[in-house]
Structure formats: structure tokens, C-alpha cells
Amino acid sequence: MITGAAVATVDPSGTEHRRGFVVVEDGVVAAVGPGDPPPGTTADRVLDGRGHLLTPGFVNTHHHLYQWATRGFAVDAGLFEWLTTLYPVWARLDAADVEAAARAGLARLALTGCTTTSDHHYLHPRDGGDQLAATVEAARTVGLRFSPTRGSMDLGAAAGGLPPDSVVETVDAVLAATADAVARFHDPAPGAMVRVGAAPCSPFSVSPDLLRQSAAQAAELGIRRHTHLAETADEEEYCAQTFGRRPVEVLEDLGWLGPDVWLAHCVHLSDPDIATLARTGTSVAHCPSSNARLGAGIARTRDLLAAGVPVGLGVDGAASSEQGSLADELRQMLYVARAVGGPTAVSARDALRAATVGGATCLGRDGEIGSIEVGKRADLALWDLTGLGHADLDDPVVALVVGPTPPLALSTVEGRVVVEDGRLRTTDVDRAVADLVAARGRVLARG
Ligand SMILES: [Zn+2]
């Protein structure tokens, strides 16, 4: 039980309590409300939340955890040059490297208020071991709810694509690996800790055949679909030249839009593109820091939200967004939207909604997580607003979004403590750092 905290429930009405309480029982929210808990309420453990803000745990909707060992490359390059610099480096990763990178990336997410994350693992070097299994293992260790996607590419250099041929696969191999990942890791039950999705990489690194067949397979397996879309002007030009269509039109032609699809980036959208996403119920994973780092542009979040498109937030891979903290993306979302759209383009509460229930909607889990409501999973973040960065900010949600990232007093996943007093309780961070440094050393030495 947490008492005395400001509570931003992010429920459909946006209910907030200046001083409220939450009771957790068996991993689920049993009660939430203003003031004090009803007389007679007992708990094994009671936390005094005065001066703190309680929010739903953040949901990260786009990441490439393997990239944590390869940060700081091609710092001044755009997407295509950045990719061609990094593909040969990533081609040398093995499963042990990926486990270390994923554990470090997940630790960073946990320490900055994330309780659920997806991952898009689209690069499977030959002889690189079972890298998807390595990310699932890392998520189990750190204790985050996890939506790994079995990514893929089938357009290598020999077929006119950007990636080296050693990291692309045949369509049949991709479909077999996806079915295998679902059989081994996917849990459709409520409160599941692992849900697998299918995720061909992008329209410029996969064939239309792979997109078509993976859509059919995902429907058969009952899993969600994810890909990158409309990230750069170069991609728009590629789609115009290759297909005579805009990126959103390419996906629609191939049956790749719908309520079971969430798309990373969506920076370069026309008005009809936005209407198409709204009509089809497709969600967007907005990655403002990565888009800025690669000079890709600024997504039209105000227009997407106004059209009713579900918008979540993503940190993207750490090689294109080195800070890897979803808490920072709330501020970044607000800032970049206002930089082009004026002071009312995105509010602090819009950003909090995107980071929580918006992300849960992207992952198809808004019935289970993303808000603090009775019956939902107890995935919570308790932010300490009593210190230097926040003590004079009266509105706790504004303090969280536009102030520095507050110290994380507590986070829980399914009611289990993951972070307490700013420290990860599930795994040793010093060891994660040492393993990360060793993994980076191995990858560079193989070059
Ligand atoms: Zn990405």
C-alpha cells in the first residue's frame, strides 16, 4: 500500500489525486483513490508517499536492445549512412554479446521508470546464436514485462539492399524462426511477462513477399506486428522510386495496417496518411530523440492525436539515441512538438499518456497495463519530487515531464519491486556494466 502520494492514474478521464493511495494485492491494483485508504485497510508493507508522484510504469514501444554495446558510431550521419556504418559491426554480435547489451539497456529502462518494453531484433547474423532468446533471458533477469519481436530482413546487398548478405534471411527461415519464438516464449494469458510479435525491419530492407507472408502468419498465430515506417525523406523517395507509392500506401497495399500493428517513427506523413492510420486503427511509436539525433525530422504528434491515432513513446536503439531513458522522451516529445507547433501542441499530460496507456495500446495491452485502475496489473512508478530538481514545482505531472528525471523511489512490475530508492533490486548494475564493456570489446576485436 502506498499512501499520501500525488496519483496520476492516466485512466480514461485523466483522474488525478493531489493526495491519494493505492493498494496492491496479488500483483493487481486492488484499490486507488483520494485521501486516506478506507479505515481497516491493511497491508504487509505500507510506503509513505508524501512529496512523491505515483504514475503507471512507463511502456517503451520501440527499442533495439542489442545496440547498447555499439553506441557512439556515425554520430553525425543520417539514417542510411548510419546504417551502412553499423551493419558490419552488428554482423559480428553473438548471443552472449546481445544478452549483455540487453541486460544493460533493460537496467537503464528500469532505473528510469519503465516497467514494460518491446524490442525489435531484426538482425540475426549467421552463426550468431539464438539472440532473441538472449533478450528474453535478460528481461527475465531485470524483471521487466517484455514484448520481444522476431524481426527480419531479406533484402541484402546482393539484392540491392543496404545490409550485408550475412545478416539477411530467406522468407521461409524468417517464418520458421517466428513460429519457433512464439512456441517457446509467447504467453497469451492476462498479466503475461512475455508476448512475442513479428517485425520485418522496414520497407527498404525487406521484400513485399516477406511483409505479405508475415502478416498472414501473425494473423494465424494471433500475435501483433511491428515495423519501422516513414522515418526519413530518403525512405519516402525510395518508396516513390521502387513502388510509386508513399510509405503508408506501401504498407496498406500489403495488408500491413490495422489495430494489431504499431509503427515506429511515422515522421514523414501527409494528411491522407494520418487519416489512413486513424481509419485502420494503426498505432504509432514516437521516438523523438532518435529522430532528432539522426536529423530525420519531427513527427506530427499533435495531428496524430487529434485524428485519434494511438501514440506511444519509444527510446529507439541506443546506437541512435544514446541516453536510452523513456523518462527523457516525455520531455523531448513536448519540446519538439512545441518547437514547430506552438506552446499548446503537446501538454505534459499528453506526454504522460503517450508514455503509459498510449504505449500499452501500441502493444495491445491497454486492458491490462498503462493506467492505475482497479483490476489492472500493479506496474507502478513512484517519483520523488522533494529534491533540488522539483521541490518548487507545484504541479507534480509538470514537474515529472519538464523537470529533470526525478529520483525513482520505487517501481513495481506485477506488484514485485524492481527499483527501490533509485537502485535496481533485481540484478547487479556494476556487473551489468562490466559485462557490457567486455561485450563491446569482443565485438570490436572481431572487426
Ligand atoms: Zn528503430
UniProtKB/TrEMBL annotation:
GO terms for molecular function: 8-oxoguanine deaminase activity. InterPro entries: Amidohydro-rel, Metal-dep_hydrolase_composite, Metal_Hydrolase, MTA/SAH_deaminase. PANTHER family: AMIDOHYDROLASE-RELATED DOMAIN-CONTAINING PROTEIN, AMINOHYDROLASE SSNA-RELATED. Keywords: Hydrolase. It comes from the Bacteria. This is 8-oxoguanine deaminase. Residues 54-392 form the Amidohydrolase-related domain. Its EC number is 3.5.4.32. Pfam families: Amidohydro_1. The keyword Hydrolase applies. The keyword Hydrolase applies. It is an enzyme of class 3 (hydrolase).
